[in-house]
Amino acid sequence: MPAVAVQPEPGQPAAVQPDPAAEPVQTSGQSAAQGSTQGGAPASAPTTVVQISGTRIAARGFTQPTPTTSLSTADLERAAKPNLFNTLAELPALQGSTGRTTSTNSTSSGIQGLSSLSLRGLGTIRTLTLLDGQRVVGANVTGVTDVSQFPQLLVKRVDVVTGGASASYGSDAIGGAVNFITDKKFKGFKFNAEGGQTKYHDDEHGTLQGAWGRAFMDDRLHVTLSAEIMKENGIDSPGFGEVGPNGRTWFKNSAYQIRPLAQTTDGLPQYTVIHHAQQFQYAKYGLITNGPLQGTAFGPGGVPYQFQYGSGGVPTGTGAVTNCVNPFCVGGDLSGSVGAGTNLAMNLKRQVGYARVSWDLNPDNEIYFTANWAQVKSHFTPNPGAAKNANLTIQCDNPFVPASIQAACAANNITSFQYGTANANFPANINVHPTRTQRRFVLGADGKVPLFGKEWSYDAYLTRGENTTTINVHDITLNARYNNAIDAVRAPDGRIVCRNPVAAASGCVPFNIIGDNPADPAAWAYIAPPNGPRQHTTQSQDVASFNMNGEAFQGWAGPVLMAFGAEYRREKYQVRGDPYGAGVDDLSPNSALYPADPILNSTVGNNWYAGNYHNGDGSYSVREAYLELNMPLLKSERWGEINLNLADRPMKYSTAGSVNTWKAGATWQTPVDGLRLRAVTSKDVRAPNLSELFAAPVVINNVVQYQGNTISVQQRTVGNTNLRPEVARNSSFGVVLSQPSWARGFSASVDYFDIKVTDVISALTAQQEVDLCVAGNQEICGAVVLDSPGSNAVTLQNFNLASLHTKGVDIEGAYRANLKDWNLPGRFTVRALATRTLNFITNTGVVGTIPSEGAGVNLGGTPKWKLLAQQTWENDRMSFTLSQRWFSDGVYSNEYIECQTGCPASTIIHPTIFDNKMKGATYVDFGGSYNFSKALQVYFKIDNLADRDPEPAPQANASFAINPTLYDVVGRTYRIGLRGTY
């Protein structure tokens, strides 16, 4: 776990710092240079000016108003994580980040395997992630970066800017920015080797990293190289049934049991959270779900038996089951449950190679070139089988139907029956394989030049970034082929063939889903061909940037500091899906892999069970410039020092037009010993991304309710090039106490934040668009045609309709002490960081909805309280650290009304629920290290020491009923490693 609250000398590892009891402690937002001037650092010590990422100004003595938390090399090493993403995701301000334990139940989202950071729960698309202050090409069409693609061993500091940073860095920094800062002129050799596994002997993982740097030609030529490989084996699916993987016993098949709204006038709640939920619309190997034979299940060899319903349920013959609420009973035969079959963690492999070469033109100026190659591969199972929830019709004359059931059909005068199955006889589970490959090159120059009679710093660079993403899905079925293969008939010559003659003529092979029967390899190859869904995406990013900062002139209270610059950026993408998913008229380029098939829709596509990727492309460019000023307003021994910080950045997008961002903040170093006040307000933006502007088109048929009638429409999903940027107003006010003379070694800060985002880009359903048009929204009316029978259409697009509003309090604190003052060995540090989310309000802008409160909803990513604390004892030879990660109890939804009896009638907006409490969690970690020498260290780490189980997270269907965004779903994990620097 990182030491997060306050940091000494952010650019330096702990090994080169002076005695912590005598050194200054940096509070968030304070530059390292200022920190070095407090607390009696030797006057002869060299001054290092370090730019903190919340601002473009880098100067000795500058204190920025934007709260920023810095993690040093020592913090990152102490966390002992195989991926820096996991270290950062534990910070309280980072909420809703995505990693290898999230989206494991998704086939088509495109974000699987992404390690992307989210601040304030506002989403990864509203957090700007930088490398050395520079943008990195997106690893997804939404533009978000993948931290796994960064050269992590060379990272010497990470700055987390917990306030709006658009005026400094441009679009996407609504929630803030995370800046990874590398050691640009590393000299020597360093390595890290680490390995471990969980208590359950799974998720075995290993990391090997190495970096080398050297100076040549009288210290003018600097070469730095690094390479790293990391493999995490993941936690595989246990398959079907209520069985957690590898001995985990906490999975309970939790779900919502939801009574019909019209029945809630009886004073009882509509929602009840149940465990051991049994979906009675299918069984492991098949279940008749309606009619006189309802409740007949099939086992080995297709032998029929009476299905055991939970809750003492009895089938009614109408599809319902007594004592059960559709679609769930409680208990009974759970062998066909699919919820536990989702991987808890993906198998992930990351490989990164990085090089930096620089040439010093003189002692103050250099030119440099960096190259980064990174590849991240992952694979996982989103679900076992392919459950069919009572949506199949089996003909009684199907030769796979047992003779006893055929006789029962005749006796009951029926020719078919409704059927559901988990398809557990499939020989393999669906498996998804995303691979992301990055190639990034930077050519730049930085240094110092005279300007306005002063010495100014500059930085200029050109960037070319490319990311190729390929997603391959294996062992997944084609819907039309499956439906035709299971509908078999006996031919006159006695053979079992597909009933549809067109399908039979095009290669259909009958597939038996009546009971547990070995799958016919030929039939499996027909319904799940070896070339499954495939998506290939190429993204590119070109950037030209120029930045300068320095002293503009001498003001009445001190030097006026200025930073200015300009940037041009171009983003482009192209995505291609396979013909069966995307739908194309001409299959000839892919005829060998995806041959034409008359029963498949070759124009629309959407033929796969899941993973129907479509084609799309688009690009946009942006030109921007910025100016930032820091103006001392007061410098008085009596009243202290006041600085005003202003910034402005106009931006012009080729698609979204012009938009302006700005920042205004101030700091007051009060005359009270160690007390500083800070405040900042800003206008920040997020421009629409490539996916929102140029979404791959999809066309399907649908129905909507219009003027009291049900009408058929053609539903067209496309991008919207008329989208406007999202606009945020981000304000914070804070109090900082840093190293007062009466509490040497103590620092703390408290900051209140308030973020309002309008014109939020969001997608609507076809019915929601119709309702909004009827309500008078003319922008939406332009996307619907409702009065032309035969030509009615609804175009699904993203619109600037929604809004977000979050506010809360950040608290940081640290205390360092040299225990020799108490005649004890070593040094002791206590650190803590907490975020209290007061509100997280989402307004969809949709007719018939109300703003919803997300703070404290533990099914989401924004608990009311989130805490990270750490206690460390260390000396020159060893260290031990105890850490605590905690978030508070919450609810399933703030819109629910909790009651057990005497409940009001439920409404769509405010349903009633029996119990609306979802517990929080506390995780305790323990780690330590031992130094064999100044250069060599062995370390260990145990995460989730008590093996705390995740809380059940009920869904409307019994699938993946956990929340990996908040809860640790992996369990106790052991790691041991060796690192060295020479």
Give the SSE layout.
Layout: H1 32-37, E1 68-72, H2 73-79, H3 84-89, E2 127-131, E3 134-135, E4 155-161, H4 166-169, E5 176-182, E6 188-198, E7 205-216, E8 221-232, E9 255-258, E10 271-274, E11 277-279, E12 287-288, E13 296-298, E14 304-306, E15 328-330, E16 347-362, E17 365-379, E18 388-395, H5 403-411, E19 416-421, E20 431-451, E21 454-474, H6 479-485, E22 488-490, E23 496-498, H7 501-505, H8 521-527, E24 534-555, E25 558-577, H9 579-582, E26 616-636, E27 640-653, E28 657-669, E29 675-686, H10 690-693, E30 698-706, E31 709-717, E32 726-738, E33 746-763, H11 766-774, H12 778-781, E34 784-785, E35 793-796, E36 798-818, E37 827-843, E38 852-853, E39 865-874, E40 878-887, E41 897-898, E42 912-913, E43 921-931, E44 936-943, E45 973-981
Parallel strand pairs: 2-5, 31-35, 41-42
Antiparallel strand pairs: 1-4, 2-3, 4-5, 6-7, 6-45, 7-8, 8-16, 9-10, 11-15, 12-19, 13-14, 16-17, 17-20, 18-19, 20-21, 21-24, 22-23, 24-25, 25-26, 26-27, 27-28, 28-29, 29-32, 30-31, 32-33, 33-36, 34-35, 36-37, 37-38, 37-39, 39-40, 40-43, 43-44, 44-45
